[in-house]
From TrEMBL:
Coiled coil: none
PANTHER family found in the cross-reference section: GLYCOSYLTRANSFERASE (PTHR36529:SF1), SLL1095 PROTEIN (PTHR36529)
SUPFAM superfamilies tied to this protein: Nucleotide-diphospho-sugar transferases (SSF53448)
Name under which the protein is recorded: Glycosyltransferase
Species: Pseudomonas taeanensis MS-3
Length: 205
């Protein structure tokens, strides 16, 4: 059976001083904003293969450049719903599952997340109700769902090293099986910048 799976990218609009704030001491507000734009543009260029629809959920109005790129690459640009991160993710999952069999949620902070990784997530969703892409810092870089429950999003310790562990505990309580993908790293702190440079992504300070 072939599932229809929609891809949902949650991102912050690149505005100096409001994005990548942990990197501002190393890059400055403009440099951190430039990095956000680079990472976002890189994620938008992931291939569309395997997805029935792709949505870019932004927290603010996009500039013309970002809007144009999203249009050119076939993304539907939507404003994020209100609420904390968990509430926004829950709503996006519910809305996505109203139109497709499965949803995959990602951010733009993980440059190691590539077409092969997304393909693996889609394959996992054909056999499991939930797929998780673990992050080195204890969170996750990808969440795939074929069903939704509020406990996966409510009162989660977002931003901590417990997010993945708590999510798996709650899946166990729901008796929902899940598959883990390989562990990836995301860009959050100044010590991540050398790894980013090794991928050919550099930001002028």
């Amino acid at each position: 059976m072939s599932l229809s799976i929609s891809l949902h990218l949650l991102a912050r609009s690149p505005v100096p001083g409001r994005v990548k704030t942990r990197l501002i001491p190393a890059l400055g507000p403009e440099g951190a904003c430039d990095l956000q734009r680079l990472l976002l543009e890189r994620t938008l260029q992931l291939p569309a293969e395997g997805f029935s629809q792709r949505f870019l959920w932004l927290d603010d109005t996009p500039d013309a450049s970002l809007q144009g790129l999203a249009d050119d690459l076939g993304w539907t640009l939507v404003e994020q719903p209100v609420g904390d991160l968990g509430e926004r993710m829950r709503w996006i999952s519910v809305l996505g599952l109203a139109e497709s069999d499965g949803v995959i949620l990602i951010g733009n902070d993980c440059p190691a997340l590539d077409a092969e990784y997304l393909s693996g997530a889609c394959a996992a969703l054909h056999t499991q109700p939930v797929v998780l892409g673990p992050a080195e810092d204890g969170g996750y870089v990808l969440l795939g769902l074929r069903r939704v429950h509020p406990s996966l999003f409510n009162a989660m310790p977002w931003g901590s090293d417990r997010v993945l562990a708590v999510t798996r505990e709650r899946l166990q309580q729901l008796e929902w099986s899940h598959q883990l993908l390989p562990v990836l790293w995301d860009v959050d702190r100044p010590e991540d910048l050398p790894r980013l440079a090794a991928l050919g992504i550099r930001v002028e300070v």
